[in-house]
Amino acid sequence: MNENGINKKNLVNLLTNEFSNEYYDYGEIPMSQIMEVKRKLKPYDDYNTVVLLHHHFYLFFPEVVKKYGDSSLVKNYANLIQQLKQMNVKTVLHGHKHFDLERPLITEDYYETTDSIIDIFAGGSVGTDRKDKHTFSVIDFYDKKNDVKLIQNKFIYNSEYLEPIVRKQIPPKNISDRTIKLVEILKANNYDIYCEYNEASLKKMNKTYKTCNEIINWTSDVLTGFNSVYQFLENDSKNILFILYAINYRTLSYKNIIENKAGNTVNLKSYFDILKHVFNHHLKCTSFDIDIDEFHKLFAIKKLEKIKDKCDILMNSSTSRFAKQYLAFTMVGIFFTDIYLVLTEYADDFFYNQNIKYKVNINLEQDRFHQDVPVPKIKIKSDSDRRSIYIELLCNEATAHKIAVLFIKEFDLIIDKYEDYFKLIGLKLYYVLPKIEKKHRKKYS
């Protein structure tokens, strides 16, 4: 170099400057592009955003990178990840590595919310003679109303032979089908409150408690499969307490309404006092900025439609997001308590007379429905993928079958009015459907 007049130091400086200035932007996404995309995405908040890149933006194989480095990684990947999270991106597709791989990108705020996960799908190779393995995927994306985000079907060819198709669902099916038992979650998360609530209230309610316990199990079965609801229940025990309280208080109130209408005298004051004691000790709090007396008036209203109207007023009076959640879980408890009580105890009292009698030409004899629809055979199951619940019944009479369908249809019509409350807590439930096994003996008129 010296013989040819080249100064080594100057040459190194020249090459260093060229690397920094001319080539360092390899694999970098300018901030101006990112901000332009963010601006264009603003009108589409209701859509799931999928990002498609050529290069990968995370260390593909940390063990390989540590040894050899990774020059094709998006240079400003840390900033890119932050921007993707701000744009609520949940899925990224990329290629470049010629290796098929699916993995979640988990950052530190995963411990605050699992919604921070970004699922990444790396494309493999197809149509090249350099590899014997060829892969491609067909991915179905679902809208935000579904608990399933996406389903991937991956096709893998070794030479000319197709291997068994690999199917993956996000969130995984075992999470979506999580079994929710309200009392067990409360017991696991707040054992002291569970013991006090269980001992001080429910066990003193004798036969009424048995009904409440059945409704609690019934409601647990409904919520199973709705993973977003589970997160609310896990994060705040008061959400569970408000459901349990609503089920118990509505059961007593419903019994009060029916018995008084029939001219019977029932003394449930001691039971109501027990529940109000529980409310004052465990549910009354500064975040529940709702008039307590007005709140309890919800339970004494006969019809679910009227309860919704009353709850709308309470909801609009609140400035606390926690209070709105508690009201929403209260409405869940009331709604499913009414379904259970109608189908198991009070079908032919006021529900048939107020909702069915004048719509169809079918007469329902007193106490006949509950004779012909065995309570032990009444089950409820949820299908979060279809945003539905199915009520299974066995009907021994043709007329009981017709009436059962009409009852469930009434609740299906009412659920539209409760939709906003359910969505507030991640319960994306839009349909109540009958699933009836017929075992007819004869008709009655």
Major β-sheet strand ordering = 1-2-4-3
What overall geometry do the principal axes of the alpha carbons give? elongated
User: By helix and strand content, what is the structural category?
Assistant: alpha/beta
Q: In angstroms, what separates the terminal alpha carbons?
A: 111 Å
Short description:
The chain is α/β, with parallel strands linked by helices and 445 residues long.
Secondary structure topology:
Layout: H1 8-23, H2 31-41, E1 50-53, H3 62-68, H4 77-86, E2 91-94, E3 101-105, E4 118-122, E5 133-141, E6 150-158, E7 161-162, E8 166-170, H5 173-176, H6 182-189, H7 191-200, H8 206-223, H9 227-235, H10 237-261, H11 269-283, H12 292-297, H13 304-317, H14 321-344, H15 347-356, H16 368-372, E9 379-383, E10 388-395, H17 398-424, E11 431-438
Parallel strand pairs: 1-2, 2-4, 10-11
Antiparallel strand pairs: 3-4, 5-6, 6-7, 6-8, 9-10
Explain this structure:
The structure is a single chain. By secondary structure, the protein is an alpha/beta fold. The chain has 2 domains: 8-175, Transcription Regulator spoIIAA; 177-438, no CATH class. It has 17 helices and 11 strands. The protein has helices spanning 8-23, 31-41, 62-68, 77-86, 173-176, 182-189, 191-200, 206-223, 227-235, 237-261, 269-283, 292-297, 304-317, 321-344, 347-356, 368-372, 398-424, and strands at 50-53, 91-94, 101-105, 118-122, 133-141, 150-158, 161-162, 166-170, 379-383, 388-395, 431-438. The chain has a 4-stranded mixed sheet, with no helix packed on it. Strands 5, 6, 7 and 8 form a 4-stranded antiparallel sheet that branches. The chain has a 3-stranded mixed sheet with strand order 9-10-11. A hairpin with an 8-residue loop joins strand 5 (133-141) and strand 6 (150-158). Helix 8 packs across helix 14, helix 10 runs antiparallel to helix 11 (269-283) and helix 10 crosses helix 14 (321-344). The longest helix is centred in the last third of the chain and has 27 residues, at 398-424. The model has no long low-confidence stretch (mean pLDDT 82).
